[in-house]
Sigma-54-dependent Fis family transcriptional regulator
Amino acid sequence: MKKILIIDDEVNIGLLLSKFLSRNGFEVKTATSGSSAFEILAAESFNLVLCDFRLEDTDGREVLKKIKISYPRTGVIIITGYSDIKLAVELIKMGAYDYITKPLYPDEILNTIKKAIDTQQALNEELDKPKSPAEALKNKELVSEAFKNEDYVIGQSSAAKELIRQIDLVAPTGYSVILIGESGTGKESVAKSIHMKSPRKDKPFIAMDCGSLTKELAGSEFFGHEKGSFTGALYTKIGHFEMANGGTLFLDEVGNLSYEIQAALLRTVQERKVKRIGSTKEIDLDVRIIVATNENLIDAISKGKFREDLYHRFNEFGIYMPPLRERGKDIMIFAEYFLLSANKELNKDVKTFSPDVEESFLTYPWPGNVRELKNVLRRAVLLTEGDIVQTKALPLEISTYSKVSAFENAIETVSSSAGKEKRVDLKNAALEAEYETILKVLKDVKFNKTKAAQILNIDRKTLYNKMKAINLE
């Protein structure tokens, strides 16, 4: 059954659409805001999203942008109460299947939905096709070329292509940019890419970690100070704004700045002038600012932790950085890149990955994102004795992840089966408890079956049989 998510802050419209589509054989869920919609999308997959253009907390343009980056396998249709050809063209260029104006006519919308789902399914089948040897070689060539130029590999997925499109779009401008995404997604590398594709590429690129700044040091780091301007100021210091003059200043984890420093930053950004602490001389600035955050700055504004006026100064253009787990086979492109890098660092010649390692990489959720993958590859290359990275060179949380997931899914299946019974089924309940105990022990001993059998007080053959019963061998 095809699944559809309806996003509309008018509850009645959402309810009517939901009932109509359910009667026509679709599984339907509804959301009344962008934020609640993305909570639902994070929990389950959908074939299609129907989104009203005007929402209380966002608009259809932003929803479409995020879905095409984070959930490229999901089709999108935008619904609105007015007709605007220019907007329709823009949305379709951004990846929407279609744009429908209210009032909604049942036959029309049903026909459009079916066509959208068929079109998206065809696109997904294209994505699922195995790479030809030529395509695989192309990926290796991309990685090698990027490595040779000490550049950053972005990838070839739909999310990566959209990221590249946005970088190419904003780089030649002078816009301030906010990079939004989880820690470790490569925000500084993307900031460098924007700088290198801009007219400022021959000027300085200065990166500053706002998360490590104390309130006392922040002013000096940002604006500099004159010798003797305060106790301990033994020499004149040039601040980061002045160092980046003519080029780009990248402020990482900007949400960690104190409210007082935010006020001082606002003045500098507005007036494009900086004054060192202890000096009366103002220095003219020509600096492009790129900031990064893994926090929701809108929430921080509502809680009084971040200045709204400063946010709007920074947010002339926003780029969402998709986490590694949403990048599909891009993971292996990154892995190839970090393999080459680790070989160079360690003076080794490890050539590739075993099929089990590749499966582990594509299954594991990578909470630390690109940064975690890089560290895993450095460790794996160090531990690899031959020319192929094997599973034993991976950290246990990665090498055992697919096994743990399979076991948990099997237990969930048993539990679901037991829950469907009208009466209490003691046999299923006992089986579920048994599997949960086995899983816990296996996790504790890092899937050492001999130790697990000893702790469970059963022989290895019995343990193997119980694991085989749920297809975990």
The radius of gyration is 27 Å. Residues 410 and 416 are 10 Å apart (CA to CA). The chain has four domains: 3-128, 158-321, 327-399, 401-469. Confidence is low (pLDDT under 50) at residues 144-150, 417-424.
